[in-house]
Amino acid sequence: MYINKFILGVGATLLTIGALQAQENNPLDISRYSDSDLNGTARFRGMSGAFGAVGGDLSALKINPAGGAIFNYNQATFSLSVVNKDNKINYLNQTTSKNYTGVDVGQVGAIFVFNSNDPSALMKKFTVGFNYESSKNLNNDYNMLGAGQSTSLGEYFYQSAIQHQVPHDILNSPNIHEGYMNAGYYQGFPGQQAFLGYEGFIINPGQADGEYTRNFGSNTDIYAQGKYVSSSGYNSKFSGNFAAQLGDRIFVGGNLNLHVVDFTQTSHAVEMNQSSLNKDMIQRIEFSNYLYTYGTGFSLNLGVIGQVTDELRAGVAYESPTWYNLHDELTQGLYTTRFNNNEDRAIYPDVVNIYDRYRLKTPAKYTGSLAYVFNKRGLISVDYGIKDHSNAKFSPKKDNTYSMLNDFYAAEMKTASELRIGAEYRVKQVSFRAGYRYEESPYKNIKYTGDLNSFSAGIGYEFGNSRLDFAYSHTARDYKTSVLDLKANDLYSYGTWKMKENWFSLSYNINF
Hints:
The protein is mainly beta. The chain contains seven helices and 23 strands.
């Protein structure tokens, strides 16, 4: 395969910067930004994040920022995790497996407590906190491979060419680099796909200008078809928190959050066809895409916690949408082989498409919480949150790709709920923890992202002014994916992707 050549070629590319039409987005893109690993301190993970009315933990501030006012001492925490992702994809009744294991700097932060010396003051104390968290680990490796698909990868290039009527002379360029760029200037991303298909002998020119014919097998069982994907990167969040205790029973707080996105994905869609081919028709295809997405975002949190009784606390919290400004860079390559012909064709334009900046607004979230603390020895906590995923919006809306994607989200996504339950019990210096988390699929019809189920357990040990916490959490979720993830996939069968994540987290806390 030409995978290594493709990756090496990325490092030597030339740049093209222009008003290209946005590349294809797919339904899973939104989950990359609106979903969270619920990362954080080991105590937070050990109780499955059920901290909305508990507070007193740096990671709890992202659920309800009023929890900062429950701290009694200055505290700093550092957390580190090891994650294992077990991926199994069933595609055309064939299952493939691939694992990823890596280290994640989950959290680091500190909070400072300022007590009032006036016993009659309304504000008994206030706190100022700073926290960094890796909100979503995007490192992963997975693949899918199956036999019996009736639609060739070639159909993708054929549809791009005939639907956008790219003139023959645009595609028939003596220079691959210049031809790829010219096709992009003329017809944006679809024009580039048509150019790759033409140069790779996947499509041939038809009689009329802008018409094309297939040069690949169609309506036949394909011997093997699949994709190989490797991704890296993170979504991280820097938060500043202010919280205050008003009187003896009310705690209020707010966060200002800066989000950072850095994501890289290399994918290779592959196909081998051994039946119903005439001489010079395409037998083998390898379509490579290297995507780099980066940008920043802003959001805020507001919350209040009430001490209903000495044992019972209740909290409500609001998490605003995150307003992202994002940039995409895309490099493509194609390798093909023709049947009964020894000629291989490698098309690597060495062009990085740098697309215009675009914006994404994720949905807002509302959370209600209850916590019962008994005898200062333990607690039980429940959080319930809702988020209307149909409110996700890409812009600029004048871009046809983003407009169609917004219509898709509005029609196919819904309000989804999340439930978190956690418990903690202390015996002398040792604390035992456990939790459960359920998150409903945000999709109405096709479950591109399925329901999430997670359980956790943890232990903590105090020594002097310090505490060491350890947690294990297990998460399972199903996804839908295809050999080419398109925003409206009517070409290829879906694969069922089952991903299980195992997290091992360690935190060190110190009061000062």
